[in-house]
Write a structure and sequence with these properties.
Helix content is about 25%, strand content about 35%. It has two helices and six strands. Strands 1, 2, 3, 4, 5 and 6 form a six-stranded mixed sheet that branches.
Length: about 110
């Protein structure tokens, strides 16, 4: 479902996403629909008024969902990220260039830093 974009409330930080929750699958589809409808390169659950730690990036390989993302290290135009995929498997990524900037911005917003 395409949802309206919102401004997230920094007083209510998003909670960790539970990959076993049916809500996560629903939010994943809503994020994808909304991101593509608005032609966005990235989006987070709080952007559609859902207070969970979940982001979606339109990567070079297709949609990349990351639950509970955490930046472990930052370097010039490169980040090291930990999180989970939609199935709840731990992921660790080294991301560079434009994708690193997109993900960094989304995680910073989840953390209340932007």
């Amino acid at each position: 479902m395409i949802r309206n974009l919102t401004v997230s409330n920094p007083e209510e930080p998003p909670q960790d996403a539970d990959p076993s929750s049916p809500l996560v699958a629903e939010v994943a589809q809503d994020l994808l629909d909304t991101m593509r409808h608005h032609d966005l390169p990235s989006i987070s659950a709080p952007d559609i008024a859902i207070a969970i730690r979940m982001i979606l990036i339109e990567s070079y390989d297709g949609p990349l969902f990351i639950l509970n993302p955490k930046i472990k290290a930052r370097e010039a135009k490169r980040i090291y990220l930990a999180g989970m995929n939609l199935q709840g498997n731990a992921i660790a990524l080294e991301i560079a260039g434009d994708e690193a900037q997109l993900i960094s911005n989304e995680v910073d917003r989840l953390d209340g830093n932007l």
